[in-house]
Amino acid sequence: MRLFLLTALTMTAFAANSVLNRGAVAGGQIDALTFAAIRLLSGAGMLVALLAWRAAREPGRRRAALRPEAPPMRLVGAISLVVYLMGFSLAYVALDAGLGALILFGMVQLTMFAGALVAGEPVPRNRWIGAMAAFLGLVWLLAPGGGAEGRLAEAGLMALAGIGWGIYSLAARGASDPIAATGWNFVLAVPVLLAAIAVLPVAADPAGASGSGIALAALSGAVASALGYALWYAILPALGAARGAVAQLSVPVIALAGGVVFLGEAASPRLLLASALVLGGVAHAALGAPARRQP
Hints:
Blueprint lengths: L1 H25 L5 H26 L4 H5 L4 H21 L5 H22 L6 H18 L9 H21 L5 H22 L11 H29 L1 H7 L2 H14 L5 H18 L9
Helix pairs in contact: 1-5, 1-9, 1-11, 2-4, 2-8, 2-9, 4-7, 4-8, 5-6, 5-7, 5-11, 5-12, 6-12, 8-9
């Protein structure tokens, strides 16, 4: 029961990123890029604090935590993390929380599948079938009448965010210390994000952010992201790869429910059926596959 409750708490934290971002940005409390920057900064600060606390308790880990390994992969991780954060926040200017989470989740899984093909990994039949089902579900969702009318640009941004997170996950596979790797990626992503914001035609407006908007962004970064990841990595060994992969299927569902309850969003029958097709495909592909990092 304790493991179940901790898993449910972790999945809720991951889904909360969609609800918090959508509520703050669509509500005009903060602009999308400022939300992404505060989320990243607060997440990096929390992860650094966690690593420092852990190093104080476990001196043997101090050197590994404070030294970034494989700099080229760290750069890939930082850039792909920025792509995810920016696409995620900009998409939620128009997309509902549940719709955005489903597009993100499906694209992450398709990117991981494509990465396996490019790397020449053996791909079992269940992953082919699952990936095709998830892809068809996304196509149906984005086709006319699927709820994305007039918001295809934002849907494309969320798809880009999913590709970014998929690449981030591929770059971080096999990390000996996932929390330290995540902390370094967050820290190194800060200057990359600030540089990207400086050259984008879409301007950030930190001065226009309300106190509640800043608080929601900080909550998303420090709690839903940083503490959510830390808790996930703590319980994943007990869950195992298969149960961990299946547990993640609840994230878009929780985000959809959160959007309905807290933001007053509607869940159309087509969205629910497309969700079943995407998540069913991912579930079929995930059977026996390693658990993935969560957005």
